[in-house]
C-alpha cells in the first residue's frame, strides 16, 4: 500500500485539493462566454468606449498643459486624474477585448495577480486624487486669500506623489495575501477581470481573515477619503450660501458640481464592491458593478468634466481653431 491508500477519505480529499492548489498555473476568465452570440456587439461597444476614454482624457491632459489659463492646481489634479483613468482602463479593457475575440480567457496566475494589483493600485490612487481635488476646492472657496500660498505647485506635486506612494505597499501586500491562498475549488473565474470577490470564491478553506483585510483596506482608501470629501463639500456649500452675489454662488457651484457627480458615481460602485467582498456576492451584480467602474464611469468622467466646465470648453475651442488654421 502507498501512503495515499491508507489515508481516510477526508485526508485524501484534502491532499488532492492541496496538490491541485499547488499545481494551479492558470485561471480561466469566463467573462461573457455565456452570451457568445453577443460577442461582436460587446466587442464593438467596449472598443468604442475604450477609444473614447483614451481620446477624451488625452485631450484633457493636452489642453491643461498647453493652455496658460488652465495652469492652476484644479486642472493639475484633473490632468493627473485623466492619466490614471487611461492607465486604469488599459489594464482591463484590452484584455476583455482579446477574451471576447477568442472566448478562451486563459490567464496565468502571475498575470491575474498583476492585473489585480494594478486595478487596486490605480483605483486607490483615483480615490485619493478625488480627495485631493476636493481639498483644492475647499481651500479655493473657503480660504481664497491663502489659496495661492496653500496650494502652490510644490504642495500639489507632493499631494499627487502621496496619492501614488501610499497605495503601492498596501496593494502589493493585499495581492500577495490573496494569491497565497490555495485555489482548489476550480480555476474558472466567473468574471471578466481578476477582481477580489470572484477570486476569493475560488479559495478553499476559511477566507475570513482575507475578507477582513479587504474590508479594512476599503475603509481606509474608500470610506475615509469619501468622508473627507463629504466634509469638505459641507464646508464648501456653507461658504457658498453665505455669498451675497447670485452670480458668485452659481460660479462656485459650477466648479464643484462635476467633481461631485464623479465622486458619487465612483465611490458608490467601488464601495459596494469592496465593502462587501464576501464570496457569496451575486456574480451578475458583481459583473454589472465592475462594468460601471471599469468602463462606464471612466467613459463618463471626461465628458462630465468637459461639458460642465466653461474653462475647458473655451480651451478646447481655442485648440480646435488652431488646428483648423
Automatic annotation (TrEMBL):
Gene3D superfamilies: Rhodopsin 7-helix transmembrane proteins. The keyword NADP does not apply. Pfam families: 7tm_4 (PF13853). It is a multi-pass membrane protein. Its main location: membrane. InterPro entries: GPCR_Rhodpsn (IPR000276), GPCR_Rhodpsn_7TM (IPR017452), Olfact_rcpt (IPR000725). Residues 56-305 form the G-protein coupled receptors family 1 profile domain. Keywords: Cell membrane, G-protein coupled receptor, Membrane, Olfaction, Receptor, Sensory transduction, Transducer, Transmembrane, Transmembrane helix. The keyword Disulfide bond does not apply. One of its GO terms (cellular component) is plasma membrane. GO terms for molecular function: G protein-coupled receptor activity; olfactory receptor activity. Belongs to the G-protein coupled receptor 1 family. This is Olfactory receptor. It comes from Mesocricetus auratus. The lineage of its organism: Eukaryota, Metazoa, Chordata, Craniata, Vertebrata. The gene is LOC101840424.
Amino acid at each position: 500500500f502507498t501512503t495515499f491508500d491508507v489515508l481516510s477519505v477526508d485526508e485524501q480529499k484534502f491532499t488532492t485539493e492541496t496538490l491541485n492548489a499547488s499545481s494551479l498555473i492558470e485561471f480561466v476568465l469566463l467573462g461573457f462566454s455565456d452570451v457568445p452570440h453577443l460577442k461582436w456587439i460587446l466587442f464593438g461597444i467596449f472598443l468604442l468606449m475604450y477609444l473614447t476614454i483614451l481620446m477624451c482624457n488625452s485631450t484633457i491632459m493636452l489642453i491643461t498643459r498647453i493652455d496658460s489659463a488652465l495652469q492652476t492646481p484644479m486642472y493639475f489634479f484633473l490632468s493627473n486624474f485623466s492619466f490614471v483613468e487611461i492607465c486604469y482602463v488599459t489594464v482591463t479593457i484590452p484584455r476583455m477585448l482579446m477574451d471576447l475575440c477568442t472566448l478562451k480567457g486563459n490567464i496565468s496566475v502571475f498575470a491575474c495577480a498583476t492585473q489585480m494589483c494594478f486595478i487596486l493600485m490605480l483605483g486607490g490612487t483615483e480615490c485619493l486624487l478625488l480627495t485631493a481635488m476636493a481639498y483644492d476646492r475647499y481651500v479655493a472657496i473657503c480660504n481664497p486669500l491663502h489659496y495661492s500660498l496653500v496650494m502652490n505647485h510644490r504642495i500639489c506635486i507632493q499631494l499627487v506623489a502621496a496619492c501614488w506612494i501610499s497605495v503601492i505597499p498596501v496593494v502589493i501586500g493585499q495581492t500577495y495575501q490573496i494569491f497565497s491562498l490555495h485555489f482548489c475549488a476550480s480555476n474558472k473565474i466567473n468574471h471578466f477581470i481578476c477582481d477580489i470577490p470572484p477570486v476569493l470564491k475560488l479559495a478553499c478553506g476559511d477566507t475570513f481573515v482575507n475578507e477582513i483585510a479587504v474590508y479594512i483596506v476599503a475603509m481606509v482608501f474608500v470610506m475615509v477619503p469619501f468622508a473627507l470629501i463629504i466634509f469638505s463639500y459641507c464646508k464648501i456649500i456653507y461658504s457658498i450660501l453665505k455669498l451675497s452675489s447670485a452670480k458668485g454662488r452659481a460660479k462656485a457651484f459650477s466648479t464643484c458640481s462635476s467633481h461631485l457627480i464623479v465622486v458619487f458615481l465612483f465611490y458608490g460602485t467601488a464601495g459596494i464592491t469592496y465593502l462587501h467582498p464576501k464570496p457569496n456576492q451575486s456574480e451578475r451584480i458583481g459583473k454589472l458593478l465592475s462594468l460601471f467602474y471599469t468602463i462606464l464611469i471612466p467613459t463618463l468622467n471626461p465628458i462630465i468634466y468637459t461639458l460642465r466646465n466653461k474653462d475647458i470648453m473655451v480651451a478646447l475651442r481655442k485648440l480646435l481653431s488652431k488646428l483648423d488654421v
